[in-house]
Write a structure and sequence with these properties.
The chain is an alpha/beta fold. Helix content is 45%, strand content 23%. Strands 1, 2, 3, 4, 5, 6, 9 and 10 form an 8-stranded mixed beta sheet that branches. α1 (25-36) packs parallel to α2. It starts with a strand and ends with a strand.
Length: 219
């Protein structure tokens, strides 16, 4: 859905589907136009999305940063649900609005390896032990217990050994940024928001308590 001018100096952009290059062309164009429109004083990004591509998501984040750098007010507003990359976009807002029953979902970043998405915590456990107790991705643990899964592990274990240190460093930097954004200690964020091996769903009431949202709207 395209954004719309609702009053002079104010623009609404709606991200209401999965975030991929083919689905976000109009939204990316709107953000580029917003950056170039020096009359804009406020931009609202409405979100109802399961997330998607990190490269496209961070294109959106980069446009948001450019708006922030020229002192435009950035408002993000969840309408029902924002997960993964959509949650990353939401927390970049200066004003962050959720309904009481809206849901925001966080998880550790994942790296695609030979058809499966693997988080830094999962990669570390596989490298250190050769086994996995639980996973953010449904079915991954069961897959690893099959013959095909063991073949996958043998084929990819060296690449994971090569990648894991750098991936952990990136994950820590991202979590430290979020901790600073929320005004919380790093360990608190790991325990309550970006929890290893988990998809963490948080409703609007708890998001306000945690500092993820700045205000509640709607019942």
């Amino acid at each position: 859905m395209n954004g719309r001018k609702v009053e002079r100096g104010y623009h609404v952009i709606s991200i209401l589907e999965a975030i991929y290059r083919q689905t976000m062309q109009s939204e990316l164009e709107e953000l580029a136009d917003a950056v170039n429109d020096l009359d804009l004083q406020k931009v609202t990004i409405q979100l109802n999305s399961p997330g998607g591509s990190t490269s496209v998501g961070f294109d959106i984040v980069n446009y948001m940063q450019r708006l922030h750098d020229r002192n435009a007010i950035l408002e993000t507003n969840i309408i029902n649900y924002a997960a993964s990359m959509a949650a990353e976009i939401f927390v970049r807002g200066d004003v962050r609005i959720m309904g009481r029953n809206d849901i925001i979902l966080f998880h550790q970043a994942m790296l695609e390896i030979d058809g499966w998405d693997v988080s830094s915590a999962e990669m570390r456990e596989l490298v250190d032990t050769g086994h996995l107790r639980r996973s953010q991705v449904s079915g991954f643990v069961s897959f690893l217990n099959t013959q095909a899964g063991q073949t996958w592990l043998r084929r990819n274990i060296q690449d994971m050994r090569d990648e894991v240190d750098g991936f952990e460093a990136e994950e820590r930097a991202d979590t430290e940024w979020l901790a600073e954004r929320l005004g919380k200690p790093y360990d608190w964020v790991v325990q309550h928001v970006v929890v290893p091996f988990e998809n963490r769903s948080i409703n609007g009431v708890t998001a306000l308590e945690y500092g993820i949202a700045t205000q509640l709207d709607r019942s």
